[in-house]
Amino acid sequence: MRSLALLLCLAQLCSCRSVPLGPALAYRQPNCDDPETEQAALAAVDYINSHMLQGYKHTLNQIDKVKVWPRRPMGEVFELEIDTLETTCHVLDPTPLANCSVRQLVEHAVEGDCDFRVLKQDGQFSVLFAKCDSSPDSAEDVRRLCPGCPLLAPLNDTKVVHAVDVALTAFNAQSNGSYFRLLEVSRAQLVPLPPSTYVEFAVAATDCAAKDVTDPAKCNLLAEKQYGFCKATLTEKIGGEDVAVTCTVFQTQPLLPQPQPEGPDVVTVDPGADPAVPVPSPPDVPVASLVVGPMVVTVPKALLPGHRTHYDLRHAFTGAASVESASGEAVHVEKGPTVVQPGIAVVPDPVLRPCPGRIRYFKV
């Protein structure tokens, strides 16, 4: 009997070891400069610019890494690391990105560093996850290239605030149309010679006529938003100051209904919930096939730049109000180690695939 029991136990152990662990999800690593990879990266950049709430549009500078995962039941997910550069076009400026100039190093360039997951399905690219931050070039690098070039100044510097106030007052005094109200101070530099303050700021039209305003606090923004972008220099002189300001007013932007997530699978995240607590994942779905969906948010006032010198891309995707994938499935993905199962190779092709890719403008 003991021998029979021992044989039965051994048989059960063998049968357990022979049970397959299931197929692993293998990824591929295309060239960082592959046209398909670049398409995914450009979709990511479009996502940045369409979701930014302040500051300037960004453009693609370099693709650092790429992995492409199969997505169930169909499609592929491009996992990308990309570098961007700030342009001179404000996010409210309707100028196409292709026509926007990249801000040069001597102008104190700003670089973005982003992680994206981009779904390709039926030939279309859509962003599933976005995480970015940005930082200006170092003062040492700017001074090395151009010793006399001004550096970025804090957006709440008293000289900056004063220059914006004087410039906007001068613009409204010359206007024959609506009274414009300040939306944001976008960029500022303190110029040593001649002593002056250079500022760039965004404005919006109100329902008041500029010539008739007595109390700006009673002026309300128009329902069909009309924005403008101004550049001004306030020069200090003995016994006074001079201001030169130019503003470009863009066409009105009618209110568009915002698409609302539909279906029972949409997960709403409580803004007061602990961000360290993950959203539950659907059962029986491999982690590698899960994706997090687009995050459209309003930047809390606490995150708006005060002492900062630029609008960090980090604030463009902070505090998600909803998490939803492009297919309607609400899921959460946690990055973890790739699990290699027996007999299944989860490795990239042996063909040499150079990454990072080419630098399109310059490295900050």
Automatic annotation (TrEMBL):
Main localization (coarse): secreted
Annotated Cystatin fetuin-A-type domain residues: 27-133, 144-255
Any Gene Ontology CC annotation: extracellular matrix
MF-aspect GO terms: cysteine-type endopeptidase inhibitor activity
Keyword rRNA-binding: no
Top-level taxon: Eukaryota
Keywords attached to this entry: Disulfide bond, Glycoprotein, Phosphoprotein, Repeat, Secreted, Signal
Signal peptide: 1-16
Location of the protein in the cell: Secreted
Matching PANTHER family: ALPHA-2-HS-GLYCOPROTEIN, FETUIN
Name of this chain's protein: Alpha-2-HS-glycoprotein
Protein source organism: Ursus maritimus
